[in-house]
Amino acid sequence: MARYLIGNSNDTWNFYQAYYACSPGDILELKENFHLILEDGFFEIDKDLTLEGHVNFEDNTNYYTNKIVGRLNIKNKANVNINSLWLESNNKFDNILNIKDSSTVFLNKVIIDRTDLIKLDSNQEKYPEVYVSENSSLNFENVSTFDKGDFYSKLYAKNSNIEINNSDLCLSLSFDYSNVSINKSCIKKYYTNAINAKHSDLKINNSTVNGGDTQKRYPCLYIYNTNINSNNNLFIQKNYPSCLFLNENSYLISNDDIVSSVDINSSRAFISKLTVNEIFCINQKSLAIVEDSFNLKGENNEKIDLLVQDNSILKTYEISLNRYFVPNIRINGSSTLLTEYLSINGEYYYDDENSPIKIERSDDSYYKVGLIENDNLDEEFLYDEIDDDENISSNENELSPYDKLNKLVGLNSVKNEINKMIRMVEFNNKRIQMGFLPEENSLHSVFLGNPGTGKTTVARLIGEILFEYKALYNKEEFIFIEASESDLISSNVGQTAEQTYKLLEKAKGGILFIDEAYTLNKGDSSVNFGQEAINTILKYMEDHRSEIMIIFAGYTKEMEEFLDTNPGLNSRVANKFVFEDYSSDEIVQIGESILIEKQYVIEDRNYYEKNVKFAYEQSIDKSNARWIRNFNEKLLKVFATRVIESESTDLSTLTNEDIDQVFNIGKYKNYDGKDEDAYNKLQNLIGIDQVKRQVDEFISMAELNKKRRDSGQKIQNFTLHSLFLGNPGTGKTTVARILGNLLYQKSIIKENKFIEVSRSDLVAGYIGQTAIKTRAVLKSALGGILFIDEAYSLSQGSDNDFGNEAIDEILKFMEDYRESIVIIFAGYSKEMKEFLSLNSGLQSRVPNKFYFEDYTVDELVKIGLSSLDKFAYKVDEGLYYQVVENNYNKSNDHSNGRWIRNFNEKLIRIMSQRISNTNEDDVNTITIEDLEQIKE
């Protein structure tokens, strides 16, 4: 990483020369007191680098010695750090920072300042100081801007990730379809919204937000179709009823906040320890649950304290009022208010009849003061009012197809490709309007992605978007035909072409979506009707190239092979959309949105997030959105069972206990209620002390990970693949079985599964069959342990040995499913050492070595006596020890545990022969005579 000193003296670099000379990751440092004025007023950065200036700290003040004047365009996935700099622009018709193309920018100790300004209400075109788009990321740390009064100043982000920490911003923050985190910061902007968030996820912690415009009716925080998680914040906008304004299916989680006023419309809120200085309003089929004290200060003498109206519900533990007002509370429009306690100036009233608190209620509304859990209120009245055909989420139907697409979680690369397609359509429309010929624009596409990544959903949305832009051949009717192999292929000779052609004609003018298109490839079939369908499609695409859009969809690997074997198809499909797997964070986001859409409230979102993320990351079945849909269905079944069995009236709140039951948390202490705890079973084994210590290390690491996960920290997955090295009879298989139980009981592996195999289970006798046989065994062990005994037998020193094919398959599987299976390779120490020396790839993937030492005579005697005691045999232990020691020392067979088992079996046979000959009644005692007879 090189450092370039930028300045205007002979011993410094020219900025432009330094930029073109530097490598990705290098640092461009501005010499102290040097100001960089960008030529042409802007500069484009398209590679990773750091821009660095100097800040002098004197008299508790930061003095910036370096400025960059002009616009910085950051693009092409560049990763840029900007430290200790003053960024300035004197052009009111330009940005200071423009970030796009999936770029990442980190600002630390930076001033952002525009000197030429436009009034907010001016008709002139306005450019935000900071513009972020196209799946980019921006991180502020100790960033400041200046209060420009009623002049326009804004940070705008779309389809991006924003994090703001320890900053002081006098900007309007505006977000569309973005993920935003604000921590320990002060946001202030009057005359407009301080924060405007639409279709986004917003987290605010330990911050102050101050602004809005009371006369123009701009809320301080305008939240539209957005999830907002607010913790320990202060939101200020005096003498206005909507400081925090939630609208159109927004979802608020608030903890320990102080707000001037709250206005909830067609949204939901889950609140804890909220203080409202002026008024709290809940309107338009909204639901709010306040789990503890709800403090209404009543500081606005022109407004009541609490308004519940328009088929809304407010449920709270305690309403704490601080003044007498007529009325304090108003409930109307078929709404409901439930509270267990009602107080004013610290004096509690447990029923509404004796309360001096003024409550105004319409005849069609309901309220109650008292224990809610015993309330016999008709549940249909409470909950079905917000669950009809015009429910809270009805705005989904009003969203444009483009908005619906952007609302989908993740899929950023797909969205970017769709935007490019739309831009091309817009470009052609403009050329046509101006009398130019349009560019040829093929719409045929291929969708590549794993199950549950949204291919079918996106296909329909693309069609609707293109139809709106009049890019499809049929401008009057939207046509979308979904087809699979069975719709295209006929089992009758000569019928496939006709059947396929009819379907193409049906989709003409619109879109034909062919799901799992790779199934048309029947290359190894004696009768290839699939190729007949493909040939028909190819000819139709050529003859009607502008009259139909065909989307070929399927799993990534299979579709790539399908396209490779059909070059004519590959050349005709111009657009490739890669649907990446969802991250665990995105899985959580999808899960929460599904529950919110169904009007459920998650009691503890952090608990839901933590457990769902962990379960998905550990899951074998990573089927993306299908996985989280299946999980939520299980969760709602558990919730429904609990509600019915407990006769609860709360039909919306999902608890931590519900989540625990789905994941069966706690089952690992004793998974079937019968088997001995695996850890105790291991400790009770005789000898193998070193192995026990290594297992303890495994468990300690697992427990550390669990504690870190429970506290919300990242965990480091450790490799469990192991070598068990030792002579015969040292307990390798026994310990492996116990280890499997133990890892399952400790929640380290997902299934209590132990598959034991040897060479014959993995290796076949014909070319190409070994990989198939081995893969089947490996898949059967997913989620548990695969124990390969005498693993060295897989490699017999010959290049033609099929065992090498098995090893190659195992290596690939270990890489592809590293967190979903534990493979134990067991064998004799010497042979295993030679085996590993021939397979370096295997050696590097198996870091854990367990050495099973030979048993001492003392340990063999303990094993033998323990075995006899299990069956209630009695023996002279001293004499038994002498005989075992004598025989073992004289024996050529030092097979450890196997030897002592064979010794005991022989001893019991001698005993049984004696009893049979003498007809004795004592069938438990092994005599001295028996021991003398076995002694060698």
UniProtKB/TrEMBL annotation:
<dbReference type="InterPro" id="IPR027417">
    <property type="entry name" value="P-loop_NTPase"/>
</dbReference>
<dbReference type="InterPro" id="IPR000641">
    <property type="entry name" value="CbxX/CfxQ"/>
</dbReference>
<comment type="similarity">
    <text>Belongs to the CbxX/CfxQ family.</text>
</comment>
<dbReference type="InterPro" id="IPR003593">
    <property type="entry name" value="AAA+_ATPase"/>
</dbReference>
<keyword id="KW-0067">ATP-binding</keyword>
<keyword id="KW-0547">Nucleotide-binding</keyword>
<feature type="domain" description="AAA+ ATPase">
    <location>
        <begin position="718"/>
        <end position="856"/>
    </location>
</feature>
<feature type="domain" description="AAA+ ATPase">
    <location>
        <begin position="441"/>
        <end position="583"/>
    </location>
</feature>
<dbReference type="InterPro" id="IPR003959">
    <property type="entry name" value="ATPase_AAA_core"/>
</dbReference>
<dbReference type="Pfam" id="PF00004">
    <property type="entry name" value="AAA"/>
</dbReference>
<dbReference type="Pfam" id="PF17866">
    <property type="entry name" value="AAA_lid_6"/>
</dbReference>
<protein>
    <submittedName>
        <fullName>Putative stage V sporulation protein K</fullName>
    </submittedName>
</protein>
<dbReference type="GO" id="GO:0005524">
    <property type="term" value="F:ATP binding"/>
</dbReference>
<dbReference type="GO" id="GO:0016887">
    <property type="term" value="F:ATP hydrolysis activity"/>
</dbReference>
<dbReference type="InterPro" id="IPR041627">
    <property type="entry name" value="AAA_lid_6"/>
</dbReference>
<dbReference type="InterPro" id="IPR050773">
    <property type="entry name" value="CbxX/CfxQ_RuBisCO_ESX"/>
</dbReference>
